[in-house]
Structures are given as C-alpha cells and as structure tokens.
C-alpha cells in the first residue's frame, strides 16, 4: 500500500446563485475553504486495466465511486497500462455539502498522477475533474478560493482567517439536484464582489429552500444560533451546517452538547490543501 493521502472536506463560506446556464446548471459565486476533517486514501498497484475500491462509502457501488471514475479517466486520458486498488478510510458524511466524494476524486487524480508518473499539469487535472463533479476542481486548485461559473472558475482568496467552526450534520441527506431543480429557488441574485464578501455579505442563497424542504436542517441552524454562535450557515446544498466558534475549546464544548442523532465536529479552516506541499514540485 502507498502512504496515506488525505482528502479534506470544504466549506462554502458564502454561496449565491446568480444565474442559470442553457444546459440547466446554475451559475454560482462562492467562497471555498478547506477544513481539517478528511477521508484518507491508499493506493496499491494492480495488473493493467483492473481498478478496485475497498472501504468506500456504503451504498455506492465500486463502479460508481468517484475515485474509481477518476482513475479510469486518467487511464483513458494517458493511455498508460496500469491498474490500482484504492482503499478509502471514509470519515466524511455523504451528501453533506462538504464535498467528500469530490475531494476523494481530486486526491485520486493527484496521487495517481504522481504514482504513475503521468505528468499532467494542475490545469489538465482540473479539466478532467470538472467532468466528474462541479466541486472537484477546487480540491485540485489547492487553496482557499473565490469560485464562479459552476465553481470551476477559481481565483485564490486573500488569506482568510483559519477560524474554528462547529460543523453539524443533522442526519438527513440532501440531493443537490433536487435543490437546484426546486421551482421556488431564486436563481437571479445580484452578483457581489470579493470586497463585499470580506465586508460581511456571507449568505448562502440555497438556505431558504433547503430550510423549507428539510425541517431537520431548519432546526439544526436554529440550534447553532441558540448556542450564541455567529455566522450559522448551510454549506453547499447541505445537509451540514456550520457556525463560527471563538476557539477550539468552545467549539469542542458545543460539540459535546449536540443532541442525538445529530453528529458534530470541532473543525478548523485551512487555507491550503494538505497535499499542496507534496505535489508542489509537479503541480503547484
Ligand atoms: C452546491 C455545491 C457548492 O459547492 O456543493 P455541494 O452541496 O454539492 O457540496 C456544488 O456546486 C455542487 O457540486 P457537485 O455536488 O459536484 O454537483 P454535481 O454532482 O456536479 O451536480 C449535481 C446536480 O445538481 C445540479 N447543479 C449542480 C451544480 C450547479 N452549479 N448547478 C446545478 O444545477 C445539476 O442538476 C447536477 O446534475
Ligand atoms: N468516494 C465517494 N465518497 C462519497 N460519495 C461518493 C463517492 N463516490 C461517489 N459518491 C456519490 O457522490 C454523492 C455526493 O457525495 P459528496 O461529495 O459526499 O456530497 P456533497 O456533494 O453533498 O458534498 C454521494 O451521495 C454518492 O452517491
């Protein structure tokens, strides 16, 4: 087995739907920051053409797993004769709005590009990544980012505070597709500037629709606010919610009081992907 390759989660510190493309996908403005909660992936060489995954998310077939699809994409694009066994130590909740599947896919692209000596540039990997999911490119971009388009047009954010957060999963799974298809969703919010975000415009405009359709998420956001935490928000299309804590200790104290069956974590924002340094020589 290879060394351990982390696949971190992300938060959307702000998200606005500002339009819709002809193909139905929604144009967004968003701010991505990674957090120190992650899956861990391991890779082992197999005979050419065979790709296997173990330890992955229950209920996701091997062939549908984004890591397997990422490995297949690399084989198709490079024409090399390789095979791989991918083992995922899965910690990130599925459909949580924290990008676990996308991050697993990005880490697979980064790791196999290195292990198979493929020499693809970061830009080439990002183009492959976006065909697997709208959230994959930011994990290859490797740093906190302002995202536009469907999240694939990225620019580095000025250093954001690496704040402590309470991250709460209210035990429901949100189908991203359902929220974007909701007739009541407002699709034409006025675009904002990076300065406006830094001055405090931080809403997630999917939140009203998600709160109405998922009462458990509505309650979770109200619960976070009732703990006296600032900036209680939905990340992505949910189901996870997060709020700013003053320090690690107060985040942990609040996590300890979260009612069952909700799950919660005390996490910290990270402006750099944990693989940023590892692949700097080849990619960043
Ligand atoms: C909303 C965001 C914000 O970071 O995060 P999540 O909540 O998924 O983490 C992402 O844009 C989600 O990205 P991702 O989860 O990769 O979405 P995809 O699999 O590409 O899309 C699922 C479905 O949602 C709809 N969709 C998705 C993204 C987008 N900008 N417009 C859309 O209309 C499409 O119907 C698409 O078929
Ligand atoms: N390795 C993987 N980890 C998580 N989900 C995966 C994986 N491979 C495929 N999926 C599929 O991708 C969907 C979205 O997963 P995920 O990225 O965790 O959520 P979100 O996009 O809400 O942040 C899952 O519901 C699952 O069906």
UniProtKB/TrEMBL annotation:
MF GO annotations: 4-(cytidine 5'-diphospho)-2-C-methyl-D-erythritol kinase activity; ATP binding
EC number: 2.7.1.148
Cross-referenced NCBIfam families: ispE, PRK14608.1
Keyword RNA-binding (UniProt): no
UniProt protein name: 4-diphosphocytidyl-2-C-methyl-D-erythritol kinase
Coiled coil residues, start to end: none
Active site per database record: 10, 135
Domain GHMP kinase C-terminal, chain residue ranges per copy: 197-263
Positions of the GHMP kinase N-terminal domain: 66-143
Heme found in the keyword field: no
GO biological process: one example: terpenoid biosynthetic process
This protein's UniProt keywords: ATP-binding, Isoprene biosynthesis, Kinase, Nucleotide-binding, Transferase
PANTHER family: 4-DIPHOSPHOCYTIDYL-2-C-METHYL-D-ERYTHRITOL KINASE, CHLOROPLASTIC (PTHR43527)
Pathway: Isoprenoid biosynthesis; isopentenyl diphosphate biosynthesis via DXP pathway; isopentenyl diphosphate from 1-deoxy-D-xylulose 5-phosphate: step 3/6
Catalytic activity line of the entry: 4-CDP-2-C-methyl-D-erythritol + ATP = 4-CDP-2-C-methyl-D-erythritol 2-phosphate + ADP + H(+)
Chain sites annotated for binding ATP: 93-103
Function text: Catalyzes the phosphorylation of the position 2 hydroxy group of 4-diphosphocytidyl-2C-methyl-D-erythritol.
Gene3D superfamilies in UniProt: 3.30.230.10, GHMP kinase, C-terminal domain
Record-stated family: Belongs to the GHMP kinase family. IspE subfamily.
């Amino acid at each position: 087995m290879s060394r351990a390759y982390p696949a971190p989660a992300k938060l959307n510190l702000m998200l606005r739907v500002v339009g819709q493309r002809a193909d139905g996908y929604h144009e967004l403005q968003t701010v991505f920051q990674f957090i120190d909660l992650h899956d861990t992936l391991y890779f082992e060489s197999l005979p050419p053409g065979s790709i296997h995954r173990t330890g992955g998310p229950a209920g996701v077939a091997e062939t549908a797993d984004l890591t397997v699809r990422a490995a297949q994409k690399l084989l198709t694009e490079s024409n090399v004769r390789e095979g791989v066994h991918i083992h995922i130590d899965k910690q990130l909740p599925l459909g949580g709005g924290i990008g676990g599947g996308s991050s697993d896919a990005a880490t697979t692209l980064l790791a196999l590009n290195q292990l198979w000596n493929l020499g693809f540039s970061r830009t080439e990997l990002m183009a492959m990544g976006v065909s697997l999911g709208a959230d994959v490119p930011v994990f290859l971009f490797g740093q906190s980012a302002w995202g536009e388009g469907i999240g694939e047009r990225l620019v580095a954010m000025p250093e954001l505070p690496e704040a402590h957060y309470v991250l709460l999963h209210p035990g429901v799974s949100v189908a991203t597709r359902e929220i974007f298809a909701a007739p009541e969703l407002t699709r034409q919010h006025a675009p904002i500037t990076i300065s406006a975000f830094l001055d405090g415009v931080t809403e997630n405009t999917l939140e009203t629709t998600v709160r109405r359709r998922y009462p458990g998420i509505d309650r979770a956001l109200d619960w976070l606010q009732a703990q006296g935490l600032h900036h209680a928000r939905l990340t992505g299309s949910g189901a996870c919610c997060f709020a700013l804590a003053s320090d690690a200790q107060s985040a942990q104290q609040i996590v300890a009081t979260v009612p069952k069956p909700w799950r919660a974590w005390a996490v910290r924002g990270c402006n750099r992907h944990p693989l940023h340094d590892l692949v700097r020589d080849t990619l960043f």
